[in-house]
Specification:
The protein is mostly helical and 379 residues long. The chain has one domain (3-366). It has 17 helices and no strands. It has helices at 3-34, 40-53, 63-66, 78-84, 92-114, 117-136, 141-156, 160-173, 190-206, 214-232, 241-249, 256-272, 280-296, 306-318, 328-340, 343-357, 362-366. The longest helix has 32 residues, at 3-34.
Length: 379
């Protein structure tokens, strides 16, 4: 195929994927607000603004406003309330449309920031089913996924303030995006970045003072901490490795030992293969590993959360290591994880990712050869 023909084909595929993402985001308000019932999740996001303004407990149950289920609670930081504020004055359907477009658009932008165009389109196609599930749930997971990837992209380009803003915005929703701070290990001026993050985080923590008093804000943080502690002791909810292992061996032991082991496994390749830090391929595959880790070892992971892991699997799948001609087993594992949507195939892919970071690539064994890396070079 000629270069011009291939480029034209990529552009057509890109336009088709953009249209699919936009159409999906546009249909969500019809499905979840006009034709069908309004999910409690987005109601909770919007109601949090009024609860903060009125000085009420953000983390209490409000059955008449946001549902009577055990999970119908606001679980994000007080800072997240400010992120939801722009959607409060809009009619429900318009607000949900804007929220869906934001999630899908940020994820598309993030993929195109970290991958060359052709591979970004393929990755977007691979994770589309999980993006759809996330948008249908009206969740924040597409936003959180994009925040982690954009933290990586900003650091690769030397934009410390953008990276700090991305990681703090993600952490305002869910705490595990803080793991993205480890991307800074690959780059110089780490101390400068740490200072920027501290300043941005302090500003974000105090941002709710625009809507409430210092005493009430301090109390909101205490209530939030109590909710997080309670969730951490929930041994039944979630599609995590911890729950999977408990199902195999029995017992009611807590989540944190397995989470600690998973965190050690995540970081160990960085210690053992420090000589690889300057290679774009190694850094990109660590990003993919971290995205999958964020779901496997999250005790509150659910169906809508899998878009985070799927983004990692998709990035890993479309960027095989240099020298791999036919990554058959590698691609098969990725498809199994993306289609199966279960913890076990996802864990298998995570182990394969680990193997490649250690230089034990499964696909390399199948077909040793030599070719240039397909990873987009970063500044």
């Amino acid at each position: 195929m000629k270069v011009g023909d291939r480029s034209s084909g990529v552009r057509r595929c890109e336009r088709a994927m953009i249209l699919l993402y936009v159409a999906t985001a546009a249909l969500i308000p019809l499905q979840r607000g006009v034709w069908g019932p309004q999910p409690n999740v987005f109601k909770i996001f919007r109601q949090s603004f009024w609860h903060l303004v009125e000085g009420r407990n953000l983390y209490a149950a409000y059955p008449l406003e946001q549902g009577a289920g055990a999970a119908d609670l606001f679980k994000y930081s007080p800072t997240a309330v400010l992120l939801f504020a722009p959607f409060v004055p809009l009619p429900y359907a318009v607000a949900l449309l804007a929220w869906s477009v934001l999630g899908a658009g940020l994820l598309w932008y993030a993929l195109n920031g970290v991958l060359p165009r052709e591979r970004a389109v393929l990755a977007a196609a691979l994770l589309y089913p999980d993006l759809l599930a996330s948008l249908q749930a009206c969740s924040s997971n597409a936003f959180v996924t994009a925040s982690i990837i954009l933290t990586y992209v900003a650091l690769e380009r030397g934009h410390h303030l953008r990276a700090a803003a991305a990681v703090v915005a993600g952490a305002a929703m869910k705490l595990f995006p803080l793991a993205a701070l480890t991307f800074a290990l690959f780059h110089r001026k780490r101390r400068r970045f740490a200072l920027v993050v501290m300043v941005v985080a302090a500003a974000a923590l105090l941002l709710p003072l625009l809507l409430t008093s210092p005493a009430l804000l301090a109390q909101q943080y205490r209530w939030w901490y109590a909710l997080e502690l309670r969730d951490a002791t929930d041994l039944l909810f979630g599609a995590s490795v911890m729950r999977l292992v408990r199902g195999w061996v029995g017992g009611t032991w807590p989540n944190w030992p397995v989470q600690l082991a998973g965190t050690a496994a995540l970081l160990l390749p960085l210690v053992v293969r420090r000589d690889q830090w300057r290679k774009a391929e190694f850094r990109l595959h660590y990003l993919a590993l971290l995205l999958v880790y964020a779901v496997l070892f999250n005790h509150q992971a659910e169906r809508a959360s899998f878009v985070i892991a799927s983004a990692g699997v998709a990035i890993w799948c479309v960027t095989p290591p240099a020298g791999v001609q036919h990554p058959v087993l590698r691609a098969a594992l990725a498809v199994l994880a993306l289609v199966g949507l279960e913890t076990i195939p996802l864990a298998l892919v995570w182990l394969a990712m680990q193997a490649e970071l250690y230089g034990w690539g499964l696909a390399r064994v199948l077909q040793p050869a030599s070719r240039p890396s397909s990873v987009r070079p970063m500044a």
